[in-house]
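Input/output pair, single chain:
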Amino acid sequence: MHAQEPSPQRLNFGPFEIDLHAQRLLREQQPVALRPRYFDVLVFLAKSGGKLVTKDELLDAVWGHRHVSDSVLKVAINALRVALDEDAKAPRHLETVSRRGYRLMGVNDARPTAGGQAAKVAAPAPASNPSPSLGNLPAPQAGLIGRDAELTQLQDMFASQRLITLHGPAGVGKTRLALSAAQHAAPADGVWLIRLDALADAEPLLATVARTLNLGASTQTSADTLARALAPLSMRLLLDNAEHLVQAVAELATALLNHAPRLQLLVTSQLPLRVSGETVVAVAPLAVPSDASEGLDNSDAAAVQLLRQRAQQHDAALPWTPAAAASAGAIARMLDGLPLALELAAARVPLLGWAGVHARLDERFALLTRGERGAPERHRTLRAALAWSCALLQPTELRLLQRLSVIAGSFSLEAAAAVLCTPVDTELLDALDGLREHALLSSSESGNAPRWRLYDSVRSYAAEGLQASGEETEAMSAMSGLVDHLIALFEQADLDLFEIFLRPWLAQLKLEDDSLRAALQAALQQPALQLQGVALFSASANYRARAGHKRELQQDHALVSALPRDHWPARLQARFDLAQSHLGVMAQVISPALALDSARRAQQAFRELGEVPALYVALDRETGCLMRQQAPLEQRVDAIARMRALEPETWGPRQRRFRAWHDLMLLRDMGNDSLYEDRITSYLASSRAQGDDYGAWNSAQLLAQLKSSQGDLAAATQLLDLAVTEMRSTGQLLQNKPVLAQWAFLRIAQDAEPATVQLLREAVAALQAEAMLWWMADALAWLPAHQGRWHDALRVQTWADGLVAQRGDKRGPMFKALRERLQEKFQAHAAGLLGAALQEASGLDETAAMALCFGPTELSVSQ
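Output:
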């Protein structure tokens, strides 16, 4: 018969010891305060030998079958986590199994020895072949969305790099990515997660690392001492959320790299450590749908996939429709694909719906507040996440961030200096680099010079800070500096256009679109900035007209035209007159008569101001207005001669190309078709040879007009087929709407095949978007004519004639020839219907005319 083995008097797990005799919990021989009931819960879990204990078993054992609610047990478990310094998401000892119960892991007992003293059970030393399951990583979560490339990159890097820092903005998903990657090819002594966000300062850093790794207090005296204690081990440490302790973590990392040769570090931080041996991996937001996909099904974009998954986790019955996908795509774009923001938005979808969340994102900080209950405080609201990030900034960095908030879209180094009202100096460079290191701005696509942009949520938060600073002059000064910068930029761009071709010129200025739009709106709405707003409108008009922003240009022109001008300086009035001439010639959104008067006033003013380049441009616009009005040819000859007289002798063909174009148009309108065709064919070839896409496309357009007026519609169509194919392939089609319109007009004048009708729809939608449908309204009458609906065709044509007359415009040669050709068909097939059509057309508006042409339908444009 064997003697009964004595019951254990102490139970050990990690650095903790449960003294059953004294009814107390010790940590490294120091008592840990714990209420009796909570101690009883801990003991019951410890005696269960690592088995799962249900909540009912705990309630029965500790509260003796009394009628108590589950919340009592939850309070006890939370108190135990605090006492054990546990993270519910990454438990080392006390594990919660959702909806099942709790488990206390790693418990050993200390039994009395022959001498009556308890033998202390020390933490096991690393074995020669330790189990690969060592470590404290939480159970793997469901697969990451949109991070396959990053996971593969990290897994490859683990084979050669000892210090990898995942660097990115708050809420971008650095921790989840790190947890997903960290277990790959786990070292022999495991992978250990050390969460740093709960540490208010660096003082407890070494103790936190040592306790997590079950090391004694003697290892905590210095980073070098801790590193040497880890020297024999082969392990991977995941230091999570290091940005607020970056100096201390950098020193620890250096010591670990120097003294623990088999140890590998994976760090997540909003700041890189900047130590020798560090490899920084930038973690970008998830991919979002492009702006061009607005209104389409964006389900394949990673940010949309995350939104959908999280929203349906909140409500499994949530429907996914094309409209939902379109709204989700818009939400993803507005939130920059930032996973935390997307998850917070998804939590609101069951209540508000996809469109409702999208509509309320202008108030994102009030809306995005429903983070997971177990999440760190800074991840429960979008505002808290950004406040955490901004609290780490130096004063100069914070001031720059707040002033940059007046810029929408991307910005250059010069724009950053402008909003600070300082030159580009070392202080600015340091502050900008600080914002980049804190991952508060991202690099943006640009031409030759670097550009950056603030994430939209960061910009919104910084703008609040700028307004809340109480310094109204700060915001006003920043905006004023930005507006002056943009005025100078666009005025210089007009001069640059003499030297460079149109396509690269447009591409470079397109980078300023968002900033220009927002700055112009802000300046025109603030009385103190209105004159600057007028100057910015005027400086940018040439670009906006050429870039196809005609509707916005027309709307802003109405605002500026309504302002009193009696206090405008002479140069500002001259620049505004020049802008109006751009609107009449390049955009064709005001009457040619108003544009001509404006061009002539601008000439007089610039002559007095001595601004010869602006005078030359005003003459160019006068010539364009005269051509548009089909004025007597001698007036155009005189204007062209005045342009030629201003050209410096040093100018070559490139600088003279605008005047040369007028020479070409003069040949056409003088009826010299043979010489005109030779010249335009030569111009087309030389433009292609020089890489001047726009010059080639305009030449093809003119040559097609000539062929059309000669009755050769097939040749004209072939020329525009090639031009439109090239425009579409380079993404330039919507910047060349007149070519698209002429192509569609030529095609519909020949047949009404389904492909032709679809092309007509596309062209109509493109011109409607810019309030320019009048330009090709004649084309709409051809479709009902082809279908034998002569009465409808006559009504639409009469409506189109009225539009042209109302604007004081005259048709160009091609449109005029096609109009005459349709008139011949009317005479042949519907002569008796003309009177009734004239009467009925008087009440037609654009919607009714479109319905007569196509029937009620939705139009679309494909780039």
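The radius of gyration is 37 Å. Residues 614 and 832 are 54 Å apart (CA to CA).
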